[in-house]
Write a structure and sequence with these properties.
With 165 residues, this protein is mainly alpha-helical. It contains three helices and two strands.
Length: 165
């Protein structure tokens, strides 16, 4: 099976050879049109395959989101059930339950600070989050350079893209 790259390369090489030959222009055009057919069919098939891959990726992303939501719901349910057992044990004043599979006991958690009014906390006990590094505003840079500005460390480039409509 010939790859799209090989077809494109062959097309380009054959077009160069045809340009060097002393044959009528209509023959060159007909020959190139016939050769372009393989390139067009192969390109279409590759784009169909790429679209199929993108659809599969979107379906996987959707499934991941659904699974994450389901995992969260299951975790919350388990947390609620364990809290229910703890509440029942505390209400009945039962400190420990033993069975062949595990042991339940009411234990004290380590002491933790409870901040009930943030404004009263002294500055020495406040943490400042690390400032993220500055990043260039590429749109502002491009707009300025399109307007003729020369900006050290940046240049205006223009690539190509495959447009599928």
């Amino acid at each position: 099976m010939t790859s799209l790259y090989e077809i494109a390369h062959t097309y380009r090489e054959d077009a160069k050879r045809l340009a060097d030959l002393d044959i009528p222009e209509d023959v060159v055009i007909d020959t190139l049109d016939a050769m372009a057919g393989d390139l067009e069919v192969k390109a279409q098939n590759v784009v169909f395959f790429a679209r199929d891959l993108l659809a599969t990726a979107a379906a996987i992303k959707d499934a991941e989101e659904q699974m994450a939501a389901r995992r969260k719901a299951i975790e919350n349910r388990a947390k609620h059930l364990l809290s229910y057992v703890q509440g029942c044990m505390e209400t009945a004043q039962v400190q420990k339950i033993e069975c062949p599979f595990f042991r339940l006991s009411i234990a004290k958690s380590p002491p933790a600070a409870d901040v009930y009014e943030l404004g009263l906390i002294p500055a020495e006990y406040m943490r400042q989050p690390e400032t993220p590094p500055a990043v260039p505003d590429k749109k502002a840079l491009a707009d300025a350079m399109k307007g003729g500005a020369e900006i050290p460390g940046a240049r205006l480039t223009q690539g190509t893209r495959l447009a599928i409509s």
